[in-house]
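Our consortium's second objective concerns turning raw sequence data into structural hypotheses that experimental partners can test. To show how far this objective has progressed, the report includes one record in full. It was chosen at random from the queue rather than selected for favorable results. The single chain below, 292 residues long, was entered without modification.
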Amino acid sequence: MNKAFTEITRLSDKDCFYIVERHKTEFTYPLHQHKEFELNFIERGGGVRRIVGDSVESIGDYELVLLGGEDLEHVWEQGSCKSKDIREITVHFSGDIFGDGLLSRNQFASIRRMLQRADHGLSFPLPTIMKVYSVLDTIADESERFVQFLKFMYVLYELSVSDDARVLASSSFSHAHKTTESNRVQKVKEYINDNYARQLNLSDMADLVGMSPVAFSRFFRQRTGRTLSDYIIDIRLGHAARMLVDSSKNISEICYECGFNNLSNFNRTFKAKRNYTPRDFRAMFKKNKVIV
C-alpha cells in the first residue's frame, strides 16, 4: 500500500529539541510524517509547494509553519520556485519537554493552546514571521545551548500569541483528537463526524444540544468562527481527501460515500477548497508517497 514515509528524526532523549539550518537549491524529501512537533522556517522559497494533510498551497518568500500530530503527512516540494539559495531552518521537539505540570501553568496557556491546534498544522503570517525573524536568524548558530533554548521558548511564545495563525489541514484528514472546546460544540462535531455521509438536518443538531435552530446556528458560528454548512462541507472534503489518498475507490464512489449527492458539485467544491480537482489531488499524493 502507498503510505507516507515515517521519518525517524535526529532528536535524542537527552535533548529538548534538534535544530538544523540548510541552504539548498531544491526540495527532494518525500511526503512523510513523524511523532515530534516540527517548526519549519523557509526563506527565499517563493513558489515552493507545501502539502500538509489535505492542504496544498504555494508559499511566499517567507514561510513559518508549526506541525504536530503523528499522522499528519507533510512535504515541501519545488513547485515553481526558481531560487538558487533557499534557506531552511527546521526544529524538531517533543511535547513532553514542558511536562504536564508546566503546560498547565497560566504562563504557558497560550503555548498549550497553540500546540493543540498544531495537530492540523499552523501557518503564520508575514508580520508574525518578521517579529521573530531576528531570533530565528541566529538560533541555529547559537553555541550556548541554554541560551539557544531560551531563544526557542521566546519564538514559541511569540507565535502562540499571534492572532492570525491559520489552520492548514482539515480535522477529518489529520486524525487530530485533542480538543478544548465546549461540550456542546464537541458533541455536535462528533455527531457530524459520525454522520457526514448522510443528509444532516439543522433541527436534529440543534435538538442534540437543546437549542432552537436559529440560536444553535448563531452559537456554532460564535464558538467556531465558521458557519455550520461550511464546517460540514470541510468535514466531508477532509474524509474525501483521505479516501483519495488511502483507497483505490473511484471518485464517483468517494463523492457519494462522503455525503455529496452530485458529482459535478463535488468536483467543483473540492477544487474551490483544495485548489486541485480530486483526480489531480490523488495523482499528486501518489507521486509524493513511497512504498513501505
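The partners drew two points from this record. The chain has twelve helices and 13 strands. The mean pLDDT is 88. Both points have been shared with the crystallography group to help prioritize constructs.
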